[in-house]
């Protein structure tokens, strides 16, 4: 009577039922069977956790790879835009160089004309 009273009080205070906890068996055969069952359930639980963890890791790996490929695509697009800007700037520098050379030629032509005008006035 007292043991049944103790078991009832344990089940009320405990979060899981008493029968799920390993109990000390009276015979050695039951004891070894209980141990192998519990070790099997523990190892299968670990196996489930490993599978779940592996699945989570694979999912995260896929997400990371997707983010990295998206990032690489964005960088590629930005590099293409930068290359087009560089091409535009290159064209602008060539035009500026052409204009500079034209202005240098104009300046020399004007110097020559002023020299001719100055020589004519000094005579």
From TrEMBL:
Pfam families, per the entry: TEX12
Cross-referenced InterPro entries: TEX12
Biased segments, Basic and acidic residues type: 7-21
GO annotation, cellular component aspect: central element
Protein's GO biological process: synaptonemal complex assembly
Biased composition (Low complexity): 30-46
Chain spans, region Disordered: 1-47
Name of the protein: Beta-carotene oxygenase 2
Native source organism of the sequence: Microcebus murinus
Gene name tied to this protein: BCO2
């Amino acid at each position: 009577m007292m043991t049944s009273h103790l078991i009832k009080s344990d089940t009320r205070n405990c979060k899981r039922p008493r029968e799920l906890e390993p109990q000390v068996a009276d015979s050695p055969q039951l004891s070894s069977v209980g141990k192998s069952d519990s070790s099997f359930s523990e190892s299968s639980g670990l196996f489930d956790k490993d599978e779940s963890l592996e699945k989570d890791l694979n999912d995260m790996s896929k997400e990371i790879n997707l983010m990295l490929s998206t990032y690489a695509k964005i960088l590629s697009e930005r590099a293409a835009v930068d290359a087009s800007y560089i091409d535009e700037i290159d064209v602008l520098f060539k035009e500026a160089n052409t204009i500079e050379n034209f202005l240098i030629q104009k300046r020399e032509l004007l110097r020559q004309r002023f020299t001719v005008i100055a020589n004519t006035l000094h005579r």
